[in-house]
Each structure stands twice: as C-alpha cells, then as structure tokens.
Amino acid sequence: RFTMAFAADMLGIKVLVTAAGTYEPIDPVRYIGNRSSGKMGYAIAEAAKKRGAEVILVSGPSALTPPDGVEFIGVESAAEMRDAVMEHFSEADMVIKAAAVADYRVRNVSDQKIKKNDEELNLVLEKNPDILKELGEKKRAGQILVGFAAETQNLLEYAKAKLEKKNLDMIVANDVSRKDAGFNTDTNVVKLLYRNGAIEELPIMTKHKLADELLNRVLKIKY
Ligand code: CTP
Ligand code: CA
To answer: Would the pTM of this model clear 0.90, i.e. be above it?
Structure first.
C-alpha cells in the first residue's frame, strides 16, 4: 500500500527563497563575506518543494547542493542577488529571504590583484541596496513576505523594527550569538513576529524541522 509521506499542501504555490551569504569583491582574488552557510534557506527550499510548491532558490556561494527539482540561480554579490530576486518577484506568491546579504560593498573594486606594498590598506565601503525593503515597497496584495533578523542583542526590538520598516508579514528573529542557532549550525532557535504584534517562541529544532514549521505558519497567514 502506498502512503503519502508528506502533505502536498503547496501545490500551485510559487515560492522564491534566498539563501547563504553574499560575496562582495575586493579585487579578482579576494572578497568580503560572512558566516552564513545557506543551511536554513536550502532547508526551506527543499521543504517547500517536497510539499508541492514550485521553488526558485537564489543563493549566494554555498557548499550545499541545491535540492532536487528547484530552479536554482547562483549569485555572488548583493547586487547580483537583487537582480535575480527582482526578476522573479512578480511571479512569486511568497518570498522567504533567509540570505545574509552584505550590507556594504567595496566602492572601488580593483581590477588587478592588490599588492601588499603599503603598511595600511584602506577600503571604502558603500551601502548595498536593501533587497527586502524594496520588495516590501513593491509587494502586491496577497503576496507574502518573510524576512529573517540576525541579531546579537535586543533581538525582539530590532526584529520588530525590521518587520515594520520592510513591510513584512512575518520575521524570523534569530539570536546569532548562540552556539545552537544561526550561522552554520544544524539547529536553530527562533522567535516569530507577526504584523498584528503576536510573538511566538519556538523551541530548538533542526533547520529542516524549522523549515516546515515556518511554511505551516506562512500558509496559515495566506490560505
Ligand atoms: N536583507 C536584504 N538586503 C540587504 C540586507 C538585508 O534583503 N541589503 C534582508 C535579509 O535577507 C533578511 C533581512 O533583510 O531577511 C534582515 O537582514 P539583517 O541583516 O538582519 O537586517 P538589516 O536590515 O540588514 O539591518 P542590520 O544588519 O543593521 O541589523
Ligand atoms: Ca544586515
């Protein structure tokens, strides 16, 4: 007897997921990066796909293999991630932005390898576009926008401010100073904040389990 191992409760839904950190080039051989592994975003993409969704995964550099059956778009910099996300935003029913986007990029990227001639090297950084904020401004009725907030202090206060500023439906507040949560861990401990002010604390769980828990809640918001 054949039994369904999962509920295909996302059939007909198109999900855009971003994952991993971005690389901001300094010169042809160097970049500024961050500690994001991509595990959370890839787990969300995989879970949504298994539940029947059509999934587009836009990812910064990651050691992970994209889940089977998702449309994968690999990018490096925040600017490239922005372009890929904007290209697919209008067709998405929900966008889940798990990526750790670099806040700044190097102003004058050297086209040759920088030599170690001087005792000091000064790089000027300029602000990257805030992709999620732009999505919040462009969001049409019915589209669901989920962000992550990576914080080392004042978790709820900062996360709430991001939820409002970026016009999100839900934000996943992540205390990245914990050893069992955040960057490059297999588990996560998060609090979920909603537009109506509700806050939900989830227990520690694997990123795969959390991916399904997040999707359950996102579906409840919309369907
Ligand atoms: N984000 C984005 N584009 C950026 C920076 C962040 O889309 N240039 C998204 C992230 O993918 C995440 C959310 O915004 O879903 C929050 O990212 P976070 O780094 O926690 O917040 P920031 O708004 O960048 O603020 P700060 O780093 O100063 O806390
Ligand atoms: Ca940031």
So the answer is: yes
